[in-house]
C-alpha cells in the first residue's frame, strides 16, 4: 500500500455517544489545515483503556494492553503501524503491522484494540484515504477547533438513528467496530440535567476502577450507584 492511499490520524478524545454505554473514539486527520474527523463507536473497556493512556493515568497494576506492550518489547517485536482499512455493514476493520526478525506481519484487529496498543507503543495510526473520503466527518468553514466540530456532531446525534438506516455511504456518521456484546449502536439520549446523567458518570468511574483493579474504590462506587437508584425509585 503506497503512502498516498493512507492518511495518518491522531487520537483526539473519547466521548459519550447518546449514552455512556456506547462511547465514541474520535480520530483526527493530522496533516491538513481543515482536518476530517472519524468517530468510531467502541466498548466501555476499550474506551477507558484509551482515555487512561491519553491522560497518562497509570493503573496500579498493568491492564491487558500494558501487558501486551511489555511482552512485545521483551520479544523485540515492534508495532510498526495500525491501519483502519475498511468498513462493511456498519463495522470497521483494522490491521496491526508488527515486525519480527526483519519481516513485516499483519494481524487482524478491532480498531479500538489496535489504537489502545498504538498509543502505548508509539506506533502511527492510519486510515485508508478511500475510507476517510467515504465516512470522514468534515470540519465546516468557520470552525477553528476540532472541539467545535465534535460539539456540532453531538447536536446532531438524535438524527443518527435515521442516518444509520441509510447505510455507510449516506450517513457520514458513526460506524461501529465489531461488537463484543449486544449493546445497540444508538439509543435514546440522556438528559444531562437528570439523575440518569449522574448515574452514567458513576457507572463510568466504576468501570475504570474495576479495570484498574481498585476494588475498594469500586465498592464505594457501587454503594453510591445503589443509593442513587433507590433514591430515584422513591
Description:
- The protein is of the alpha/beta class and 234 residues long.
- The chain folds into two domains: 183 residues, Bifunctional nuclease domain (Roll), CATH 3.10.690.10; 45 residues, no CATH class.
- It is 41% helix and 28% strand.
- It contains nine helices and nine strands.
- It has a seven-stranded mixed β-barrel, surrounded by four helices.
- Strand 1 and strand 2 form a beta hairpin.
- The termini are far apart.
- The relative contact order is 0.18.
User: How many DSSP H or I helices?
Assistant: 9
Query: Strand order of the main beta sheet, please?
Result: 1-2-3-9-5-4-7
Strand-residue fraction?
25-35%
Mean pLDDT: 78
How does CATH name the architecture of the largest domain?
Roll
Shape: globular
Provide the CATH superfamily of the largest domain.
Bifunctional nuclease domain
Biggest beta-sheet profile: 7 strands, mixed, barrel
CATH class annotation of the largest domain = Alpha Beta
What portion of residues is helical?
40-55%
Tell me the number of strands. 9
Distance between the termini: 60 Å
Rg on CA atoms, Å: 19 Å
Amino acid at each position: 500500500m503506497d503512502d498516498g492511499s493512507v492518511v495518518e490520524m491522531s487520537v483526539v478524545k473519547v466521548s459519550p455517544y447518546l449514552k455512556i454505554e456506547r462511547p465514541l473514539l474520535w480520530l483526527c486527520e493530522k496533516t491538513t489545515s481543515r482536518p476530517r474527523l472519524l468517530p468510531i463507536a467502541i466498548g466501555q473497556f476499550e474506551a477507558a483503556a484509551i482515555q487512561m493512556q491519553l491522560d497518562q493515568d497509570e493503573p496500579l497494576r498493568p491492564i491487558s494492553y500494558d501487558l501486551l506492550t511489555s511482552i512485545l518489547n521483551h520479544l523485540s517485536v515492534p508495532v510498526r503501524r495500525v491501519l483502519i482499512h475498511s468498513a462493511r455493514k456498519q463495522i470497521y476493520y483494522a490491521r496491526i503491522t508488527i515486525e519480527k526478525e526483519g519481516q513485516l506481519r499483519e494481524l487482524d484487529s478491532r480498531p479500538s484494540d489496535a489504537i489502545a496498543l498504538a498509543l502505548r507503543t508509539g506506533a502511527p495510526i492510519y486510515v485508508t484515504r478511500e475510507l476517510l473520503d467515504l465516512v470522514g466527518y468534515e470540519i465546516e468553514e468557520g470552525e477553528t477547533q476540532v472541539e467545535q466540530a465534535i460539539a456540532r456532531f453531538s447536536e446532531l446525534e438524535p438524527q443518527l438513528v435515521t442516518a444509520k438506516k441509510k447505510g455507510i455511504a449516506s450517513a457520514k456518521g458513526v460506524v461501529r467496530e465489531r461488537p463484543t456484546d449486544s449493546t445497540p449502536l444508538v439509543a435514546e439520549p440522556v438528559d444531562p440535567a437528570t439523575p440518569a446523567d449522574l448515574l452514567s458518570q458513576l457507572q463510568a468511574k466504576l468501570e475504570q476502577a474495576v479495570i484498574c483493579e481498585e476494588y475498594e474504590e469500586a465498592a464505594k462506587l457501587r454503594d453510591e450507584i445503589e443509593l442513587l437508584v433507590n433514591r430515584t425509585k422513591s
